[in-house]
Amino acid sequence: MKNLIATVLALAALNSFAASIPVYETTNYSTGQVDGSFGINEEMGRAWVELAISTGYSSDDSGPNYERVKVEGLSLVAGSVVLDVEGQQVECAKVRPVGIFRYRMAKATGNCKFKTQIVKQTYDDGFETHQVRVLKVSLETK
Q1: Overall average pLDDT of the 99-122 stretch
Q2: pTM of the predicted structure, to 2 decimals
Q3: For the segment 20-73, what is each residue's pLDDT rounded down to a tens digit?
Q4: What secondary structure, in 3-state letters, does the chain show?
Q5: d(CA 110, CA 112)
Q6: Residue 11: phi, psi to the nearest 5?
Q7: 11 touches 17 (CB < 8 A)
């Protein structure tokens, strides 16, 4: 009976583990629209975050800015993109073959979500202080 209770408590603790990892911040944005995905290099066992940040203020602009960001603790392990946060490993994406030529790419599992937030920060240029709106992108685990 004690083993059953301990197992249930351990599973509840694992399911309640959530973290927010800061990924990127910028002042060059228009709407705060950010699309995130995972990039991989299977030969080197590396994974990173790829962001498409909407910077256009009108429909005539060329499109989003693309950023590739290295995230501490994000790696490629046995065909999965894994985020290691304080010893806990969360599977963020699985590597799958896609398309006619079976190109391999990372498909998100839903365990890691990209969250955007616009905050006002005080910027000190050495003479005066200014309020600056900053777009912050974080990666949140369940």
Answers
A1: 85
A2: 0.73
A3: 889 898 887 777 688 999 999 888 888 999 998 887 665 556 678 888 999 998
A4: CHHHHHHHHHHHHHHHCCCEEEEEEECCCCCCCEEEEEEEECCCCEEEEEEEECCCCCCCCCCCEEEEECCCCEEEECCEEEEEECCEEEEEEEEEEECCCCEEEEEECCCEEEEEEEEEEEEECCCCEEEEEEEEEEEEEC
A5: 5
A6: -65, -40
A7: no
